[in-house]
Design brief:
There is one protein chain. This protein is mainly beta. Helices cover 12% and strands 33% of the residues. It has helices spanning 3-15, 79-82; strands at 19-21, 36-38, 55-60, 63-71, 74-77, 90-94, 104-113, 127-131. A six-stranded antiparallel beta barrel has the order 3-4-5-8-7-6. A two-stranded antiparallel sheet has the order 1-2. The longest helix has 13 residues, at 3-15. The N and C termini lie far apart (50 Å). 16% of the residues are buried. Residues 5-17 have low confidence and may be disordered.
Length: 138
Amino acid sequence: MNILTVFLLSFLIQSAASTTYTCNPSVTCGCSANSATLTKIVGGQAAGQATWGWAVSLYIGGSLCGGSIISASWIITAAHCVYGQSASQIIVYAGSNNKLSGTQTRYVSTIYRHQSYDSSTYLNDIALLQLSTPLDMS
């Protein structure tokens, strides 16, 4: 890597060090009630109340993972979270910033892991969870 490439990458990383996400009320998929400012991704940071309404916590056979709501009946998550697990071992908590709690609790009826997921390289590390009962999206 040459010095110009290192400089440009450094500039881009510093420029993106703080990002503010705001709500666009005209979008059909809905949006957060509050704006959120992020300063890092790795290691994370605390989320404000009602900031990330599409995020869920997943309790999977004694472990924790995260996921995102893509519709009332579907959650997207990482395949490594559900690898070797059965649907009955997964509890979905929606509507909270705290793990293992939520205003809605759902169980999973079916796991759809990417057919080419590789647990040694994490290639195609994606899975869909079909909920046994849809979430209340209001």
